[in-house]
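Record type: ASSEMBLY
Status: queued
Input:
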Amino acid sequence: MVAMMHNPLRPTSPLRLVDAPPEPSSAVPEATIRVENLSIVFDVPRGQVIAVDRVSLAVMPGEFVSLVGPSGCGKSTLLNAMAGLERPFEGEVMVAGKPMLAPRPDIGMVFQQPHLFPWKSVRRNIAHGPRALGKSRTEALRIADDLIDMIGLTKFASAYPHTLSGGMQQRVAIARALANQPRVLLMDEPFGALDAQTRAVMQDNLLELRDRINATIVFVTHDIDEAILLSDRVLIMSAGPGRILRDLSAGLPRPRSSAILTDPAYLALKRDCLDLIRTEGRKAFEQMETVT
Amino acid sequence: MSTGGHNRATTAGRLSVLVGALSVPAFVGVWELIARSRIVNAVLFPPPSTVAVAVLDWIHSGQFFGDLWASLFRVTVGFLIGTTGGIMLGMLTGRFRLVSSLLSPLFHILRPIPPIAFVPIVILWFGLSEAGKLFLVVWGVFFTVWLATHIGVQKVDRGLVRAALMLGTPRRQMLSEIILLGALPYIVVGLRTAVSISFYTLVAAELAGAFAGIVYRIEIAQQNMQTGQVMGGLAALGLLSFVADRSFAAIAERAVWWR
Ligand SMILES: Nc1ncnc2c1ncn2[C@@H]1O[C@H](COP(=O)(O)OP(=O)(O)OP(=O)(O)O)[C@@H](O)[C@H]1O
Ligand SMILES: [Mg+2]
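Status: finished
Output:
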């Protein structure tokens, strides 16, 4: 089998480590997403909250990277900054070589909630993006119909979102994001609200999908199994203010399936992640104790 | 056992339908009896039969349709102008902070003043012209619809707006589709309230002086002590606003078509 081909765990310095890949030489392709010393601060009634604290990372073309971290550590905020939905307080986010100041249609987003337009049928929800970008109605609907077949909802093409189950809605949301053929796909706990079975099916779908579309994917999740199963690299974030603690290369072969859940390389990686998260959790706890 | 319960339920259901159907006729019958029994003054409380005769006379004289048209015109045109303005300004104040800072304080001060209080100044401004009557209806309708739209726009699911942004939705479409339809359930509630407001401002407008209209006719009849005609006018007004409210409710149910 895949026994340890190389140690997937790069040695890392403690805390605030930023494990971006080496500077691109002429041979290495330019990173698709480059986050440089990014901080994001929210104004709240009593001062300010640092949601993301000096994070740097790079995602290479075609890579699938997962962001894992405890609730409230700033994963969504970081992802929103990559989407252009959140402005940097400090630092910058570059996607495809251009700074992100506002949302761009070459970047697709799937949110934790499907956020489908309730007044549009499945078909028209998916056609929304191409229409907004000026494609003809026929062209947009053709794109939508292809995607509907791909997500296996052909029978529900003219159904309204509220008549679909949560899993079906989330599939439509993914198809809607893909309709603009984004070069970057950002996914914020897209399966977080689903039950275990549906979730497993959706993960398999996503693995299949990934081999068919040509997007760079950043995937936020709480679930370490999910992160390792799906991605090339797992970034582990500290308890808030969000910083990247570790950058783990999954280094597992592709195409992949849930069969790897029993692979020794996978288990080693998972143990390492869990150790890290446990130590981190304890640290966060001790910090709280000393503060109070 | 369960069928027994079921039967009892349907029997109770049938009974309530029957009682519901008889409610108005029974009321009219009791009224007729009391009015004819001489317990009350039949000049002040004419029996329904007298009212019916008065209404028939009204229709035969040819004035009825003129009055109906005058009132309907005021209510409809005033409603349309006021609600259009209310929706447009509500979208602007709900969506744009600066517009809201400019207009909302003003609107919040003007909104609670009962529209009827504007009758004297409207007479000074517009005399007894149609414009003055339309103004009152527009004024009455506007603030309710404005506020409902304003709140609706602010309650539009942020997630929908963000999803639309990520898909490259142009600004224009964002306002005319995502925000407008997102706020529609609130707007519809505002519009329904506006239907009844438009009728009570109509009353004020016609009482302030008019040359035709259902309420105008009621007032004339009152001056001539034609109580049958007064009550016939009231019945016509009640029927008209009832039909308007019901048809609007039916439209409103379909307006939010995705529910
Ligand atoms: N709009 C906002 N205004 C103020 N504070 C915010 C806002 N959005 C996020 N925050 C704060 O920023 C921090 C990070 O939030 P974020 O939603 O990014 O966390 P998360 O890692 O995605 O959590 P979860 O896993 O629960 O989704 C939290 O402390 C949160 O309270
Ligand atoms: Mg989140």
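Annotation: Residues 1-22 of chain A have pLDDT under 50 and may be disordered.
Annotation: Chain A touches chain B through 28 residues (CB under 8 Å).
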